[in-house]
Input
Amino acid sequence: MSKVPQPTTKFLKVKCESCNNEQVVFDSAKIVVKCNVCGSDLTEPKGGKAKILGEVLEVLS
Output
């Protein structure tokens, strides 16, 4: 029997550096994700995994 492959992408709980808002983002976001409170950028697309601009608080499964 072959193993079922596990996903390589995750959802992350990220804290905004500007206002300390906590928000869930996708680690492979293809667009800029903005903070829902202050509008600061939380992710920057890089072609594969996104660059996370805030503090990663938790990896969600």
